[in-house]
Amino acid sequence: MVATISTRGSSEGLLGVLVTALLWAVLERRVGLAGALLGLGVHFKIYPFIYAPAVVWWMDDEHMASATATDRHDGKGKRGEMLRKGRGRPLDGARKMHNFSPYNVLLYLTSSSLPSSSEQTPPWATKIESVAFVPQLLLSTLLIPLVGAKKDLPTTMMAQTFAFVAFNKVCTSQYFLWYMVFLPLYLPNSSLLRKPVLGVTALALWVLTQGLWLQQGYNLEFLGLSTFVPGLWVSSLAFFAVNCFILGLIIEDLGAFSQV
Q1: 130-164 tens-digit pLDDT
Q2: CA dihedral of residues 179, 181, 187, 192 (deg, nearest 10)
Q3: What distance in Å separates the CA atoms of residue 87 and residue 24, rounded to the nearest whole number?
Q4: Residue 93 to residues 55, 111, 138, 218, 221: CA-CA distances in angstroms?
Q5: What is the CB neighbour count within 10 angstroms for residue 181?
Q6: pLDDT, tens digit (0-9, with 9 covering 90-100), for 21-67
Q7: pTM metric for this prediction
Q8: How far apart are CA 66 and CA 195, in angstroms?
Q9: Triad 183, 18, 29: Cα angle to 5°
Q10: How far apart (Å, rounded) are the C-alpha atoms in residues 149 and 156?
Q11: What distance in Å separates the CA atoms of residue 20 and residue 38, rounded to the nearest whole number?
Q12: In sequence order, what are the residues at sequence separation of 6 or more whose Cβ sits closer than 8 angstroms to the Cβ of residue 114?
């Protein structure tokens, strides 16, 4: 998937390296290097800024002290070791429809009904776009870091990224790579592997709802059928609901990790 996304000219592969290096630097207590990597990453894509609150919250006296022998043998120590070792006709603009976000259809239809520049834009036209970032940033930069950063930083950063992508106004396949880089650190102790039925169900739902959306997108772009409502919108809501379900599982695992 990384190779396929990279052929489109995106920098997601390099950004994944920078984010993983950031996590390694923080766990190794290399504050200056971590700050430099975070700053560099933000210049590639803005989203890594969400990690700053979690990193700062994690850096208390206990975590900044040298790792003890106990730390090296628990689950967090194992993840740190992994990081050290693993250095009709389609409507105009239909191509823009590669977007799984539930906001997408609403914003697309709203933009097509906006008045010309000479007319005044009605208040309702930009209302959704103005507030859409509120739940996204509330979860990814405040609530999740406060709840999980001191318990398990790698899983917290994955939950932050997952929430940021799921609640974003634009959600495309390349954004999935943003949280996939954390899977090797999260999965070994996760409920998705400890409970195979749960893991397979979550994966199947995640793939199935994507397939439903892609089928509607195919009908729109290649067959010329107007599938905005209910097709694309309902499938976007279904994919969003599955993402919320998986995000809940990750956050539940954060509580379990803190008890290990």
Answers
A1: 788 899 999 999 999 999 999 999 999 999 999 99
A2: 30
A3: 9
A4: 40, 11, 31, 14, 10
A5: 21
A6: 999 999 999 999 999 999 999 998 999 999 999 999 999 888 887 55
A7: 0.84
A8: 34
A9: 90
A10: 6
A11: 10
A12: 121, 125
